[in-house]
Protein 1
Amino acid sequence: KELKENGARVVGVFCSFVPVEILMAGGAVNASLCASSEQPIPAAETKLPRNLCPLIKASYGFALTDTCPYFYFADLIVGETTCDGKKKMFELMNELKETYVMQLPAQRNERGLDLWKKEIIALKEKLEDFYGIQITEEDIKKAIQLKNRERKAMLKFMELGKLYPSPISGYEISTVADSLGFNFDMEDRIRLVEKRTEEVLKDWEENYKGKTSKRPRLLITGCPNGGVRDKIIKTVEEMGADVVAFDSCSGTREKVEQVDETMPVFDALAKKYLNINCSVMSPNDSRQGYIKEMIHDYQVDGVVEIILQSCHTYNIEAHFVKRTVEAEGIPYLMIETDYSKSDQGQIATRLEALLETLS
Ligand code: BJ8
């Protein structure tokens, strides 16, 4: 509200594929509109099918009921053609507020790269038209440098999970990462996350280093986990495990690759963003390689995959993830769930059973 009153530009986004550097270069802050609450879902179900991903229903429900301040204050929404549910929902959202949709290709090859570069240029032109501004390459370069600094700082924080024994809970890692996304002062965001990283490192040096731990170390993979964090991540940590790594959009997925600052800006952005290893890409082999790497780097003992109900891409890709994880000789548990609390007890029982196999 304060930003808006001071004349700021606000753009709502839903996905890691949207190159926020373009928004930053246009002087806009980006507000994540991916919803994680079950509260607006009944309203959404008056327009959307019930058997749809809760993230999509909740996000649309907030827009429909006008109860999300970030949606309310956004001038424009930038969507993307990732999964079918989201891209069709954007057509309905467009009736509530202008929703511009980037056409994401599903393949990582030369044609895909070329198409994605054109889409990024088209986004820049859309912003120029929408706000009546000019965005120069110099503006984009500056935005790339700043976002890279933030990305590195966030990655360093998340990589605290590599320390043994783990000095920080996975619950904290993922909540801090999510909430910092709503701090629109990028320099402040960097400062805060660096400060917390230093504190945790110091604590580890003084109180953990050289000791052993019986707590099993888990990797969380799959769909965004904001809406199910309490019933899965918090629960399993209270049961005695350490969630140390996240292969997800609330984790390191978007952070591992920086935008190459030596390349022409649109080529660099297209390359970086097309490499995000989300299951909407087909094929998406790089995700398997990344999970394998994480299992080693974070000394992972078991993997929990979170599938939001009706998310077909992650649900189908789970077949490959299970195979990758089991080939590493560690257990894999897939939890398919939504934002309600009705399966809380059942999930706790399954997590308990997983931890028993690890003890
Ligand atoms: S880059 S993970 S933020 S698409 S909405 S695909 S859960 S059915 S969110 Fe995502 Fe971008 Fe990928 Fe990340 Fe499934 Fe639901 Fe679709 Fe979802």
Note: The radius of gyration is 20 Å.
Protein 2
Amino acid sequence: MSATAHKTAPMPADILARKGGAPLVSLTAYTTPMAEVMDGICDFVLVGDSVGMVLHGLSSTLDVTMEMMIMHGKAVRRGLTRSMLVIDMPFGSYEESPQQAFANASRLMRETGAGAVKLEGGEVMAPTIAFLTQRGIPVMAHIGLTPQSIHTLGGYKVQGRGDTGDQLITDADAVAEAGAFAVVLEKVPESLADQITRSVAIPTIGIGASANCDGQILVVDDMLGLFTAFKAKFVKRYAHLGDDAKSAMQVYADEVTSRVFPGPEHVYSDKVPKA
Ligand code: KIV
């Protein structure tokens, strides 16, 4: 089934059932209007903690709070009827204990209407993923480059090259075994993404992990050319809306200063309209 064929939003079990089938389509969203545009085009929409960098000008995702995620999660939920909503658990909201993760994941789902949460980490987070999934919280895992760990990873580097690839294979198996319904693979070599995708029982969602994955995700502002502070190699720009917006604003400024705008069609006469 293609994403556009959905009449209602898929459930985590529907995403899981797409393993090895038609590639899953996904983007991030942070606002109602953008969610409305992608509704039904995407199988699932992620309210990523990338919101901190993309919309709030933060230098990393580490300062994103539960309150920010809830505010953007509610906004995106209002724009979706045909795509599933997944929401990121922010840094510090789940790592301490499975109980802490349950309290915050259940709050995120309750207050935003999300159908699942996403959290970063592999083998080490497997007990938490099992705790959540056994208690009714569908979990999407995220391994490879996990931006909440940039300080321990040493920056936004490719993960899993050489011998370190074995740990990522272990991570993927551990999160699948723990009950995750899908796993994001970020910034890993193509051959490793292929190996993981062929061996793990749940769909892999690639971002910088090649077309060998079971699906793809991109940050919407990256692919539309709205976020241009930096561009990772894995980003393809499908539009240049930032440049288009700048040109439009320059024309507006010129028309305001030359009194071309507002024109006669934009003003009100003093005639009282007939009832
Ligand atoms: O926060 C985010 O946007 C993500 C991605 C996988 C795109 O985690």
Note: Strands lie at 24-28, 44-47, 84-88, 116-120, 139-144, 182-186, 204-207, 215-218.
Protein 3
Amino acid sequence: MQGQMMHRPLRIADILTFAEDSHKTSEVISRTVEGDLNRITYPDMAARARQMAKALIALDISLGDRVATLAWNGYRHLELYYAISGIGAVCHTINPRLSPEQMLYIIGHAEDRLLFLDLTFVPLVEKLAPQLPKTLRFVVMTARAHMPDSPLDLLCYEDLLTAQDPHYAWPEFPEDTASGLCYTSGTTGHPKGALYSHRSTVLHTMLCAISLRDCLQPGRKILPVVPLFHVNAWGLPYAAPLTGASLVMPGPRLDGASLWDLMNDEQVFSAWGVPTVWLGLLAEIKQRGAKPVGFGEVIIGGSAAPRSMIDAFERMDVSVCHAWGMTEMSPVGTVGHLPPSMDDHPLEQRVDVKAKQGRRCFGVDLKIVDEAGAALPHDGQASGELYVRGNSIVSGYFANPEATAQALDPDGWFGTGDVASIDADGFLTITDRAKDLIKSGGEWISSLDVENMAMSHPGIANCAVIAVPHPKWDERPLMVAVAAEDIPPKKSDILSHLAQYLAKWQLPDDIVFVDTLPLTATGKVSKLTLRQEYADHALPA
Ligand code: AMP
């Protein structure tokens, strides 16, 4: 027998309409690229999003079209999240830290029709322009007074917006309609696109609102250091308006001093980001002898939060919530709140548990499996590859049948490429990574890509690129290579060779020459052995 309840399609625009009705005084406060501090309430933002939606339609954007953004965290970027998806188009957030080659690839692969960019990125786009599709149009996210002189035909965001009135009824379409597109690095080859839908996004937003309810509350101020161009800023663009939390957007200035000042001025309660940015903030707190006023919580994810970092925050009464997830999961999968039974436990014990990656959110199922794919017990001992299942997890990759075919196991679970254990209380511990990727400051470097490019250098016979722990960037790449001739090539030669294909931060920090590389039983290079061997390798400063 079927239930007799209405079935309304889940729509992203309804989140903003809800904020407009219910959270009238909550704000989005943005440090802009132009240098000022902008304040806008959710009702004002909702009106502007409707104006921008009409502007997009006037530019001939319609259902299913991909519209790209190349921008920092700020209110205009947030407006675009709603305006683009609200008309049924797809908001494709581009990571500006990608190499020009990768950026060109994803713009072409996504078949973007419009590119919205912050002023900061005009020189970059001017450089890329000759290789970009001729049909791509550009909109600079600024007001007329700041429009730059450029050989490109640039449209002005505020001109487009103010040409429209805010009277617009968001259209209805099926809830599985695509809403957002975010590319993530593959272990080899090109980046792969996670294509979110209205349904997955709204369900993920509710998942975040329940799981992170300490900070997602009306009147609480949250600072996303995690960028809007990186996995939907961990769901905050939706979860904050839904719950009435205010957002404090840092723009491009993410150093410790700038963050400290902004957080102090605005009395930010909760700040979200990868471990690397918190090192800068902790150093600033130490130097000033005080934490920013009102700072009570930090959400750390993207890479493992070091125990010492958790300890430092907890000792200054900033509660740490360690979260784990990935682009393919929208991204939140687990969050690290402690059960009430641990309230009276000593700090040491609490920090031990907080150093784990947290427990699953409602709507995310976890399993760990052995090499044969058999499920392992959740006993805190067994460790295996982590698989996930849920409504906010990808079922494949955008226009990529090859990667899609490999994404799920025969039972429909998505393989994360992380190796983990899960204890009897449900706490996840990421113990290793099965995927050949290195995460530096929250951004990916594909070891296989670097290896392939290095192998095209005549002086290299074989090589492996591995992650070496780094105090600031979490991990940095080290290349272990076998030279093709008795005298190895100069390191600087290899680095200049790699620089033709890679962004500067993706280049190995060091190259070590060896006679042979260790092999596994199946004859592959044993990266595990190399990682153990070079765990303490001193990288050049
Ligand atoms: P991304 O798709 O760029 O967000 O990266 C997701 C990947 O980052 C995961 O599969 C993990 O390898 C890693 N990751 C994310 N959060 C954590 C965490 N808290 N601890 C350890 N690794 C993490």
Note: The mean pLDDT is 95.
